[in-house]
Amino acid sequence: MNAEEASLLWNRKDDVEQAGGHAAHRQLALKHLKLKTVIKESHCSPVHHLVFNYTDEGMQNLFATVGHEQATVYDDLHMGDFIAVVVKFTNQKTEYADGGELHTCTWLGGQHSTPHPHGDALLAVAGADHNISVISIVEARVIALLQGHTRDVVDMSACANKPGLVVSLAKDGNARVWDVPQQLCMSSYNTDASCLAVSPNGAFFVTGSKKGALHSYQIATRQQQPVPSSSDRKPQAALGSIEREQLNMECSSSGRHTETIDCMQFLCHNRLATKSVDGRMCVWDMAAWKQLSSWKGEDGRHAADLGAHQTEHISAWVTQQGMCMCTTLQMGSA
């Protein structure tokens, strides 16, 4: 923590007391958001995905973006006064992979699985070449290549409680559970999913379908086998199992998804936020098996993407018109 961040945190304590508590302070902060930094990436193409590193405690100042053939890792330690570029990766063709456009990325958590004395952060990126490249931020290079998908990889998810585990989804609906250190595919399952999210405890993942349905897949792994060392090896599948269960949670007929679910993310207190292509947003209580809230943007302000902090009570979404909209999330509602 630098001096500026320590000073801001100290001032925040006073602001919280003056506002009348954390809930009131969050509402007040959202009303006074201001633009501090604008980044123009060199690929001059749409940014497909942006994700903060919530998997590594102490490295939550890092965030990554993917767009065109480029993945970039930034350091936001200085509270937005300036953004430092840490690593820039271009997915070029090599003897190991075809390269091409990147669609998605996720942080894997490398603090406890690295030989580096001061720790590391691992970023998985994937897209059109069907492979998943795992980048070491310390070494600034690809340290693992996960091979097995036969179509574009469109979504990935991981969690802090299961370092080294990542679930990927391809354009053809094939979902795979990976052991990254072993470069091993533990399970493979054909689905009708359009997006997915791994639970905070890593015990299951949830998918959203093209028909607006939610499904849960329990992850159970058996003892893993050594990975062949040849460069043209294929990952071993069916070393674990995935049991599918449709989530028939309580919700009103007018509040459920009826279109393709294209984005989802777990929130704190075992809640799941989902978004469909028609702009409908839903928050689900995964423990009580019920819907907490559902809404759509007014005046055509449909959400184009969704983001939330897994330990805080604030979520945000970006509309198709480029507007950023925020809301606070309470225990019983959103």
Give me some keywords for this one.
disordered C terminus, 334 residues, mainly beta, 4-stranded antiparallel beta sheet, 23 strands
What can you tell me about this protein's structure?
This protein has helices at residues 3-19, 22-30; strands spanning 49-52, 62-67, 70-75, 84-90, 102-107, 122-127, 132-136, 141-146, 153-158, 165-170, 174-179, 184-190, 193-198, 204-209, 214-221, 240-246, 261-267, 271-276, 280-285, 290-296, 303-308, 314-319, 324-328. Strand 7 and strand 8 (141-146) form a beta hairpin. 8% of the residues lie in helices and 42% in strands. It starts with a helix and ends in a 6-residue tail after the last strand. A four-stranded antiparallel β-sheet has the order 1-2-3-4, with no helix packed on it. A four-stranded antiparallel β-sheet has the order 5-6-7-8, with no helix packed on it. It is mostly beta strands and 334 residues long. It is globular and about 60 Å long. Helix 1 crosses helix 2 (22-30). The protein contains two helices and 23 strands.
